[in-house]
Specification:
This protein has about 450 residues and is of the alpha/beta class. The protein is built from twelve helices and 18 strands. The structure holds guanosine-5'-diphosphate (2 copies). One guanosine-5'-diphosphate binds next to helix 6. Belongs to the TRAFAC class TrmE-Era-EngA-EngB-Septin-like GTPase superfamily. EngA (Der) GTPase family.
Length: about 450
């Protein structure tokens, strides 16, 4: 159910970004035009054979001395070890093995995470193979030669990567617990919110199971419903280099979103919504999760009767693609509206799993078409034959039409709105797949 995460780590200039672009380019994302998200993208989706996974390029930082290279690589590796399912450790045949490579290899060996050692820039598979042998010394098994630049041998590498993926059946977290990821930029109040929830008298905290020091799942029971809170605060606390750390904490955020049913996107009321918030929100939206926009620190600002509406307006304008997500104003400090927050989380978790029968769905579709006719292009009208729901989390629908080109975004949006009116679906994105039927 949740997609495996593959992290690419390695020194600057070994070709991480080139490899990343190579693997993600051909893939057309459903929401490639989500504003604020596609810029400096460092994560993307890859499909290989029957597998889909998320790849994260942890690079893109230009350290200026060997010391910094080492410490940054160590942090990258830590973050990858913590949150990734498989690590691609990329080295460069042109520069050969370096001390930094050896250091990181030692860390990776100790972690017992699956590591695929990949030697890049082997543009000439016949004459450059000699340079490969020294990488056996890293003690990470057989190095796989590739050329990201020339797109050589990437299939062999991907075969190796997917061979480490956990067995899907064994991994599926199938129970009635509602998994809630709490995401947001540093200092927005993620830890405070978890602490406040856990500290409430009517909350039963059944266990706190930490996989590492930094990532902690908290299980709580509220009104008979079990929730797993996935907190993403962490590593950055130990470091002074804030911007860089945020890059690494993206891995944690992606991993948390991936496991969640409902994502709380925290925004700091004192600062208002920022570009970083938009990026983080876009990640949850793209992943198709239930979303709540949670404006925290509501206690800390001066308010009158217009303040909340002004906030709502700003947020709705900024996150225009997330109209389905409710916006709540809370205080992790005082506990204001936290019980209501859980009512909303519960409702959204139900909506994520809502199934509509084909008959009822098409009643709504035909009525929508009768009220507002499908568009035509150069005299050719769009015909929609019927639609059917194919999956949940998020609810996904296939629409059968005469010609895909005729299905304009605005008409699809109209149908979506009619469906939301009829069935609710508050808090969850909906996905549509348009198919031609002869
Ligand atoms: P990053 O810092 O690890 O992300 O590295 P980049 O992807 O930015 O690549 C660094 C340089 O190596 C760029 O000039 C790339 O064009 C070059 N490069 C990447 N892959 C290959 C390759 O397979 N062969 C060759 N010859 N050059 C490559
Ligand atoms: P995190 O980095 O997102 O986990 O943020 P923290 O939970 O560590 O909170 C950062 C700072 O914001 C701390 O000083 C908190 O006391 C403060 N804070 C968190 N939530 C609230 C709130 O609802 N109201 C106020 N006034 N301060 C808050």
């Amino acid at each position: 159910m949740s997609k495996p995460i593959v992290a690419v780590i390695g020194r600057p200039n070994v070709g991480k970004s080139t490899l990343f672009n190579r693997l993600t380019k051909s893939k057309t994302s459903i929401v490639d035009d989500t504003p604020g998200v596609t810029r400096d993208r460092i994560y993307g989706e890859v499909e290989w054979l029957n597998h889909k996974f998320t790849i994260i390029d942890t690079g893109g930082i230009e350290p200026d001395s060997t010391d910094i290279i080492l410490s940054q690589m160590r942090r990258q590796a830590e973050a990858a070890i913590e949150s990734a399912d498989v690590i691609i450790f990329l080295v460069d045949v042109k520069t050969g093995m370096t001390d930094a490579d050896t250091h990181v290899a030692n860390m990776l060996r100790k972690s017992h995470k699956p590591v695929v050692l990949v030697v890049n820039k082997v543009d000439d598979m016949v004459h450059q193979t000699m340079g490969m042998y020294e990488f056996y010394n890293l003690g990470l098994g057989e190095p796989i030669p590739i050329s990201s630049g020339q797109a050589l041998n990437l299939g062999d590498m991907l075969d190796e990567v997917v061979s480490y993926f956990p067995d899907e059946d064994a991994e599926a977290e199938e129970d009635d617990k509602i998994r809630v990821a709490i995401i947001g930029k540093p200092n927005v109040g993620k830890s405070s919110l978890v602490n406040k929830i856990v500290g409430e008298e009517r909350v039963i905290v059944s266990n706190i199971a930490g996989t590492t020091r930094d990532s902690v799942d908290t299980e709580v029971t509220i009104e008979g419903q079990e929730y797993v809170l996935i907190d993403t605060a962490g590593i950055r606390r130990r470091s002074k280099i804030k911007e860089n750390i945020e890059k690494y904490s993206i891995i944690r955020t992606i991993a948390a979103i991936d496991r969640a049913d409902v994502v709380l996107i925290l925004i700091d009321a004192e600062e208002g919504i920022t570009e970083q918030d938009t990026k983080i929100a876009g990640m949850a939206h793209e992943a198709g999760k239930g979303c709540i926009i949670v404006v925290n620190k509501w206690d800390a600002i001066e308010k009158d009767d217009k303040t909340m509406n002004a906030y709502l307006k700003k947020i709705t304008n900024t996150l225009a693609y997330m109209q389905y997500a409710p916006c709540m104003f809370i205080s992790a400090l005082t506990g204001q509206r936290i019980p209501k927050l859980f009512d909303t989380i519960y409702a959204i978790a139900q909506n994520q799993s809502q199934r509509i029968s084909t008959g009822v769905l098409n009643d709504v579709l035909y009525e929508a078409m009768a009220m507002n006719q499908p568009p035509s292009d150069k005299g050719k009208p769009l015909k929609i034959f019927y639609m059917t729901q194919v999956s949940i989390k998020p609810p996904t629908f296939v629409i059968f039409v005469n010609d895909k080109e005729l299905m304009h975004f605005s008409y699809q949006r109209y149908i979506e709105n009619q469906m939301r009116e009829a069935f609710g679906f508050k808090g969850t994105p909906l996905r549509f797949i348009v198919r031609e039927k002869g």
